[in-house]
Amino acid sequence: MREDKPVDEGKAIAEIHGRLRERFPDASDAEIGAAIEHARASFESAKVRDFVPVLIEKEAKARLKGKR
Predict the structure, then answer these.
(1) What is the pLDDT of residues 5-15, one digit of tens each?
(2) By the 8 A CB rule, do 44 and 27 touch?
């Protein structure tokens, strides 16, 4: 039987920052960081954490595109 490892959110957030940096080269590190932190705050109380990094990335990407 396979055991799932818990998600290392800190590592995932760093990877998200890197991907967003590549996708939005005109955005500053501060803007990207703020978008990530805003998204992260909205999932602060999520009980199931497995998909939180994916949701944070989606939310931050939308914010950087100007949709939120």
Answers:
(1) 667 889 999 99
(2) no
Give CA angle at 11 (10, 14), nearest 5°.
Answer: 90
pTM: 0.84
Number of H helices and E strands in the chain, helices first, is 3, 0
* 49 exposure class (CB count in 10 Å sphere: 0-12, 13-18, 19+): exposed
Structure tokens at 57: 């990335």
The backbone torsions φ and ψ at residue 7, rounded to the nearest 5 degrees and listed phi first, read: -75, 130
Report whether 27 contacts 61 (CB < 8 A): no
Q: CA-to-CA distance for 51 and 38, rounded, in angstroms?
A: 16
Find out whether 17 and 32 touch, Cβ atoms under 8 Å: yes
